[in-house]
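User: structure tokens for this one?
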Amino acid sequence: MEWVTLLYRLVPFAVVLVLGGYLFWLLREHKLTVKYASIWMAMLLALLVFAIFPAVADWMARSLGFELTSNFLFAVAIFVLLIAVLQLSMQLVATQKQVRDLARAQALATLEHNNPEAKPHTENTDETDKNGTE
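Assistant:
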């Protein structure tokens, strides 16, 4: 086996080892949740399979109509990253809603604390006004 071919097979293993170690460190330090780590673990597993069996990536690329395996790998990577961005966007919207609801509750609590004779606020805070704004 030529040294260049051996290098091309060892580089993905090194990448999997380094990224896998970093991923576990992030999980241990609670800087990443298991929910998001699972996406990266799936990517690392796919990279490991493609490193061990490069013919699998070639076969998948050809069966899906890609002329070059690298184009297939880039397309898959872009697709997975788009899914991750969509998931993070949905989480951001949910977090923004929680912050907005907490800010409203805090404002009402502060108002009631500063003005005890004021009537409690009974309006549903999840609804928008008649103009459709929040």
